[in-house]
Amino acid sequence: MTERSILLGNEAIALGLLEAECTMAASYPGTPASEILRALASLKERHKLDLHLEWSINEKAAFEVALANSYTGRRSATIMKQVGLNVAADPLMSAAYTGVKGGFVLISADDPGPHSSQTEQDSRLIAMVAKIPVFDPSSPEEAREYARRACALSEKHEIPVMLRPTTRVCHARQDMDLRPVPHPKQFPLFEKNPGRWAATPKFRLVLHRQLNEKLARISRDPDCAPQLVNGDALGPGTRDGGRACIVGSGVVTAHAQEILGELGLWDRVPFYRLPMPYPLPESFRDDLLSSYDRILILEETDPVIELQLQNREKIFGRTTGHVPTAGELLPEVVEGILRSFLGLDPSPPVEPPAYPGRRPTLCAGCPHRAAFFAIKKAFPKGIYPGDIGCYTLGLNLGVVDTVLCMGASINQAAGFYHAYRSARRDMPPICATIGDSTFFHAGVPALMNAVVQGARFVLVVLDNSTTAMTGHQPTPALGRNLDGIPVPRLSIAELAKACGVRSVAEGDPYDFDRFLDLLKAAGRHAGAEDGGVAVVIAKRPCLMDRNQPRTWPRLRIEVNEKCKGCDFCVKQFECPALRPRGEKEPIVIDDSLCSGCGVCVRVCPHGALEAVSEGH
């Protein structure tokens, strides 16, 4: 009997890569893609596979490491989320020209919605700009199959190929067969060819022409051709509404298929699913436009298919306003689109559940909360440039004023400094924050730039010794790689000094008074005549990381008679373990949430919170 298992979409993608005999995968964590490399590591151990896996320092590094493996003829994958692809855009554009040798799959997981991203950009558009084929799976099993197909197509045509799953595919589960995982036997062999691998602009023109020829051949590849998934709908007299059809790709096609079935229209409206939305074959475009009068395009998030169908009178989609131009295409949204396009009565409105909402907040006992509260106390009325990570939730505490992209907090702090300095206006205190993983990802070049341009501000590196937001992946400061093998440990303090920072201090935000003193001293350095950038490293492990030892005494917090229910601690510190009971009523401590860090004792201005030691 064939073994079967229910796999997460990201686990299915990992399995597909191994079935395609990938020998290397490099990634930077980011939701919804983070579980793919973790699943690869688990499969590597289970099947005793000889392959290199790494959490790279950022997406550009991940792309370039995996690409070099492909240059030796071995199959590779690089994995990231859609905003990470922006970081890797530079090598991507060039790699499309040079091409590859071994199959090279770029997995860029998109987040329509967006659920956990700064943007809901469509990676398929970047594939179009870069001129590489892109697969758009609609289910975990398709994602597994397309991972294999993308690898084979890449190697056949010597071009990077993108696999673009979305959140609903990455995090859905599906029952599927488990087949034997092969052990790759391709030996590395790098064949020197400077005209290709190190091409100068003259040769790049030649490579561009070759790239266009590859795309034309790929568009005609029968393995990637559009599929009519309800062939019976092509029968005589079944095209209602004057020869109408639906074309789509990705998970929205799964929603549409179910809804057409529920509406009794599955065998009456031709439905085309596109495994590869770019590049479309010319023959398909011509047949589609000559066969139908009205064509509805369903795709997330941008009009990639629509842009390739140039008859504006027949095409209905995002560019015509028939499909929303932003947001996830949830089943209820798709039903409304289909009913409107097919001339059916609108469906009854769906009322959202009336559950009380609660805004996201840092965990109870999170050391970042203590650091943010100290920053607010040290630099009242300051400017607080923030960065990407769970510490973005410092926004709720009033200590994050800007969030742009990875590493931007440092560059923006420098920008604010130069703006006020050049205008000769009173300089407000500027205190930027960045996480340890983000500092390694994009903060180091920004810090070098700030120092050499003469900026002055305080930078707090919130070092919780892990990449907490995406599942506790290791940072370069851990001293171990993905396989748990000891590797050189990088020091944030030494890196800051190497960037030219002369004031570097490290403190524990749980040791609140001392940490506050460090911040004030850093502020004095930044504001002194001979000062500059001052770095304070707020070092305390993430409470949710079970690999970190618990090395501090747990305190039991008690509320005494001085508490008059002012709720200052609730509003300004926002620890979930502090529960208000109403106006002028003393707060209560939720012992099921309280971590016993004791920082809240330093927060209450009335001395109403007391800590009692409970030992280690």
Overview of this structure, please?
The structure is a single chain. The chain is α/β, with parallel strands linked by helices and 616 residues long. It has four domains: 4-223, Thiamin diphosphate (ThDP)-binding fold, Pyr/PP domains (Rossmann fold); 225-342, 3-Layer(aba) Sandwich (Rossmann fold), CATH 3.40.50; 367-539, Rossmann fold, CATH 3.40.50; 556-612, 2-Layer Sandwich (Alpha-Beta Plaits), CATH 3.30.70. The protein is built from 22 helices and 21 strands. The protein has a six-stranded parallel β-sheet with strand order 3-2-4-5-7-6, sandwiched between helices. It has a five-stranded mixed β-sheet with strand order 9-11-10-12-13. The longest helix is centred in the middle third of the chain and has 19 residues, at 201-219. It is globular, with a radius of gyration of 27 Å. The two termini are 52 Å apart. Mean pLDDT is 92; it is low at 236-240.
